[in-house]
Write a structure and sequence with these properties.
Helices cover 31% and strands 22% of the residues. It is an alpha/beta fold. It folds into two domains: 289 residues, Rossmann fold; 86 residues, Alpha-Beta Plaits (2-Layer Sandwich), CATH 3.30.70.20. The strands form four sheets. Strands 1, 2, 3, 4, 7, 8, 9, 10 and 11 form a nine-stranded mixed sheet that branches. A two-stranded antiparallel sheet has the order 5-6. A two-stranded antiparallel ribbon has the order 12-15. Strand 13 and strand 14 form a beta hairpin. Bound molecules: iron/sulfur cluster (2 copies).
Length: 386
């Protein structure tokens, strides 16, 4: 289990210099940044860019926090990259817009971090996963030695506090997130899926930070909390965040699951500033519901089936050139032989609808369709995500 102690720092403005000092003090209380970051380490900074909105809406991690973290990491000799997969497709077009709107572009202009431009998807396996054993995450993770997870203090009607624990869901590449939501429609399954991601990357995730200077209540109002939380353990950070808004963490399903899986314990220390002066007794917050996406599996399944296009290789037109084999990030394509020559076939259990093969086929023969037999394919995917 990661050290559950949390450092709380009061910080009253989104000013990179003020945040720099607060974070420096916080890291010192945890034993110094050098304990976590080696010189020349490649660090993936993971903000919460899910909604891709302007920082003043308090839906995304503020760029001033990212800039301050990157400057501190640079002072350790580290190389930083800012990477996330927001809601929607995971490609250059979407990311360019998100980087501009969320002002991550400004944060990177300070020269302390670059923006991720690797739009590849990578498969991570975790045989110990509870909700899933295979994960389709952004490939930038592979380029990094360590990850610093920087969540936003925002609250959702169905999911409760997003915080640091659920921020890791943004590592799932692009619209695959929708598929996961359709499969993990109960809070228990969805939260365990998030914990599975943490479990898979636990050795890489060295620090977690929560941007709670300005937060976002369940009713979408903004609320000033003047808080930054820092620690090794994302779940005890979320636990502390719940205490600040006067919620009992022991009643939160996500925290309960993290404790059951021995990822955190309720008995930990809050270091740094005093929590008592920050507690808000009138914060608008709803705990996660049992069915977080509020729809039956059938309706989600129908919705997914009716909208999802799949790639089809018409074998008669295939030249067997194997270009799609190397383009496929999940190795879902193999080559078969017939008396008329070789042709490519897709294993739909492995296909993640990234459409890379469509783009790369030199003969432009790969089609995208919503096949009638998709229900059978979806069932096969279900076997992978229990
Ligand atoms: S078969 Fe095509 S669409 Fe499916 S994962 Fe491979 S490259 Fe992507
Ligand atoms: S790239 Fe196109 S032509 Fe070549 S093997 Fe794949 S589907 Fe067939």
């Amino acid at each position: 289990m990661k050290n559950p102690n949390v450092v709380l720092k009061i910080c009253k403005e989104y000013n990179a210099k003020t945040i720099f000092s607060a974070l420096e003090e916080a890291f010192n209380l945890l034993g110094g940044l050098s304990k976590f970051i080696k010189p020349k380490a490649k660090v993936l900074i993971k903000p919460d860019l899910y909604y891709g909105t302007e920082p003043n809406l308090a839906n995304t991690t503020h760029p001033a926090i990212i800039e301050a973290v990157a400057e501190l990491l640079n002072s350790q000799g580290a190389n930083c990259i800012i990477a996330d997969s927001p809601n929607g497709d995971f490609n250059q077009y979407v990311l360019d817009k998100v980087y501009t709107k969320t002002q991550m572009l400004n944060a990177s202009n300070s020269g302390y971090a670059t923006l991720n431009t690797n739009y590849d998807i990578c498969v991570f396996e975790n045989p110990l996963g509870v909700s899933a054993k295979r994960f389709y995450l952004i490939d930038a993770i592979n380029d990094a030695d360590v990850i610093i997870n920087i969540g936003k203090f925002r609250c959702d009607n169905n999911l409760g506090l997003i915080g640091c624990g659920q921020n890791l869901f943004g590592l799932v590449a692009g619209k695959i997130k929708n598929l996961i939501k359709a499969r993990c429609y109960t809070s228990k399954k969805f939260f365990n899926y998030n914990i599975d991601i943490f479990d898979t990357l636990e050795n890489k995730i060295v620090l977690n930070i929560l941007d709670g200077i300005v937060s976002h209540e369940t009713n979408k109002d903004q609320r000033i909390l003047n808080t930054i939380l820092v620690g090794e353990n994302p779940y005890s950070i979320d636990c502390t965040a719940l205490k600040i808004i006067n919620e009992n963490p022991e009643k939160n399903i996500f925290i309960q699951e993290a404790v059951t899986r021995q990822k955190m314990e309720y008995n930990y220390q809050i270091l740094g500033d005093n929590i008592e002066q920050l507690i808000k007794v009138d914060y608008n917050y709803s705990n996660p519901t049992s069915y977080i996406f509020n729809k039956s599996l059938n309706s989600l399944q129908r919705q997914y089936n009716s909208t999802q296009k799949r790639v089809i290789i018409p074998y008669k037109n295939c030249k067997g050139c194997k270009t799609c084999l190397t383009a496929c990030p999940t190795h879902a394509i193999s080559i078969k032989s017939s008396p008329y020559g070789e042709y490519a076939v897709i294993d739909y259990d492995k296909c993640i609808n990234c459409f890379e093969c469509v783009k790369k086929c030199p003969y432009k023969i790969i089609e995208t369709k919503t096949p009638l037999k998709y229900k059978i394919i979806a069932k096969n995917i279900d076997k992978k995500i229990k």
